[in-house]
Amino acid sequence: MKVQLSTIHKNLEGSWQVTGSKSEANRLLILQALFPKITIENISNSDDSKVLKKALTSSKELIDIHHAGTAMRFSTAYFAAQEGREVILTGSQRMQERPIKILVDALKSLGADIEYQKQEGYPPLLIKGKKITNNKVNLAANISSQYISALMLTAPSLPNGLEITLEGKVTSTPYILMTLSLLTDLGVEASFQNNIISIKPFQLSQEKVFTVESDWSSASYFYSLAALSDSAKIKISSYKQQSLQGDSSLVQLYQKLGVKTTFLENTIELEKDTSVALPEIYKANLASSPDLAQTIAVTCLGLGIGCELTGLHTLKIKETDRLVALQNEISKFGAQIEITNDSLKLHAHHNLKENVSVATYNDHRMAMAFAPLALKTMLQIEDAGVVSKSFPDFWEAMSFYKIKVEEI
Ligand SMILES: O=C(O)C1=C[C@@H](OP(=O)(O)O)[C@@H](O)[C@H](O)C1
Ligand SMILES: C=C(OP(=O)(O)O)C(=O)O
Questions:
Q1: What residues make up the domain containing 309?
Q2: Where does 3-phosphoshikimate bind (predicted)?
């Protein structure tokens, strides 16, 4: 599906309910499979959560996890410790290019039986579940935090728990802290000090209900709409001020881009704040919030300001190489952009080209990041259905806020 985007008017208001966080949901799905007395409320309706739920409840040998990175990494550790169970875990073509060796090596050092089915270091994997009694493991923490969360989630079900030593500079740290918080909230004894994560074995004796907060990464597209509007009073729910999600840093990140956030009960209100003087060059290190990089780069493009974004070293191994994808697509609007392996520099640009067709590279965030730009210029988004990976009703939300979405 290809869509043409334009605007009806640029004064945005109204309330929208955003689906549950896919990061929280996918952690809770693994914990629920290990501790069935868990109930999950406001679960994410994302493809990535649906695919993980299906994987965890299926009795099939072949499990296809499609594009879902967390589902792939979390279920690798889960199945490795399911004694007597044998599965082949596979995914989309891109998933077969997303590295998993750091996690597989860590699990093997603990005694897991995992074989690569095609290319060494990448899915698909043949996993023969084993009882894992070793309880000390080291792994590199500078490539993806998902490997660490994967080990942490399975750890409380292991007879001797787990002590994980992180090597190198830890990246995407809020996601590790989210995993830790969910574990301790469940009642697991767990700590993270001086690069050592320690998790004790655990059994759940009583029912436990978790309510998933709405997705802050999805909230970023509403922040971008507010920033690019003439005026905005956008209310989105259900959010809390003390979030487990690192992407709640949007509140500070977009304050400098002229968006004021007010926390009401369960809801945040985003207002365009015209009293803020926009920076000539917006600077941010996004090592803790990698999923916001595309949204912020496109907001700056729309505002006609430059940006220098750093800490982007994890972007190359996500749904696509997001640095290259951003460079290709932003250039189409006439702007100048330079990238390195871990940074992006956009030069201020006015007079955006019209009717650009944005390619999305099987990446939901490419489609969603560019959509709010319709407030500044007419554009097209190719393969617009990709949004369902994290935000299935994204186009309905855009239409609600007066973006005209036409299938072409
Ligand atoms: O643990 C998680 O839920 C996630 C961790 C991050 O990945 P990296 O740790 O690979 O940066 C993030 O980009 C991804 O969307 C979700
Ligand atoms: C990187 C992402 O997801 P994953 O790694 O779980 O595929 C994302 O949602 O932006």
A1: 3-19+214-407
A2: 22-23, 27, 144-146, 172, 291, 318
| Pocket-testing residue among 23, 27, 46, 175, ligand 1, by greatest number of atoms within 8 A of Cβ | 175
User: Where residue 372 falls among pLDDT bands split at 50, 70, 90?
Assistant: very high
> Last residue of a domain, which of 166, 182, 211?
211
Same domain, 156 and 38: yes
Cα–Cα distances in Å, from 207 out to 128, 203, 348? 30, 12, 54
Domain tally, the chain: 2
CATH number at residue 249: 3.65.10.10
Confidence of residue 8 (pLDDT cuts 50, 70, 90): confident
- Among protein residues, the one whose CA lies closest to atom 6 of ligand 2: 69
Ligand 1 geometric centre to CA of 12 (Å): 31
Among 46, 75, 319, 360, which residue has the most ligand 2 atoms within 8 Å of its CB, making it the best to mutate? 319
92 alpha carbon – ligand 2 mean position (Å): 13
ipTM over 0.90: yes
Instruction: Judge whether 23 is annotated as a binding position.
Output: yes
List, for residues 309-351, the tens digit of each pLDDT value: 999 999 999 999 999 999 999 999 999 999 999 999 999 999 9
pLDDT-derived band of residue 183, with 50, 70 and 90 as boundaries?
Answer: very high
Looking at the structure, do residues 55 and 36 belong to the same domain, yes or no?
yes
Residue 291 appears among annotated catalytic residues? yes
- Residues 222-249 have a mean pLDDT of 98
Model pLDDT, residue 106: 98
